[in-house]
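User: Please run a holo structure prediction.
Assistant: Happy to. Please share the sequence and the ligand.
User: Here you go; the ligand is S-adenosylmethionine.
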Amino acid sequence: MTAVPSRRAPFFVRLLLVGALLLLLGGPVSTVAQPDTSQIGEPSTLLIESDTVERDAPFVATERRVARRMLEVAGVTSEDIVYDLGSGDGRIPIIAAKTYGARGVGIEIDPELVAESREQARAAGVADRVEFREKDLFDADVSDATVVTLYLWPEINVELRPKLLRQLDPGDRIVSHDFRMGDWEPDRTVDAGKDKTGRATLYLWTVPKEVPSRLLETGDKP
Ligand SMILES: C[S@@+](CC[C@H](N)C(=O)[O-])C[C@H]1O[C@@H](n2cnc3c(N)ncnc32)[C@H](O)[C@@H]1O
């Protein structure tokens, strides 16, 4: 991975952000996700996020029910190519393929999570429809995506916004779990109900034909 120093907050700021997330979750974020065998694509082993990877957001999985709601809100069908930027254990691309017949691509910087995602895709029988790339999401080409899903931080969403608006086509959709994208007003805001963080809120944007130039800048507050 090539680090982009200008984008990364100083270590203590990132520590504060992680601390804030811990508080939001009401307790320590375990790096070990508990398997729930009632759902598809479940980990066959306990997931341990690598502690040597420099990442822009910690690994906290979207609950599967919320992930399905994200895909529903985006109106995903078998015609879609769904990219999850920072794909964690791969659940969103796997659900997109298994439940909606879409193609899925996960971009994830942590090699252990990429390996786990590939194993989950095989276990779910969708390895031919999903792909996981070990990559920094800021370096990923998303131009063939028709739907992009995000569960990152507000400021990372704002940093990503120009790239998404330049590479995606008009009509493509972006859904973010819990975090907005600066002053780009979402087309829809959906309350996805209670989850481990309290309530899950989903934001949907559709790429417009004419992109206002201010959205191609990252100067606004997240
Ligand atoms: C909050 S988790 C979301 C996981 C998954 N999208 C979900 O909703 O279940 C954020 C993920 O982004 C990954 N990540 C953080 N910074 C990244 C970067 N620069 N490039 C690629 N992945 C990154 C983390 O390793 C983590 O798995």
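The helical segments are 11-24, 64-73, 91-100, 111-123, 154-167.
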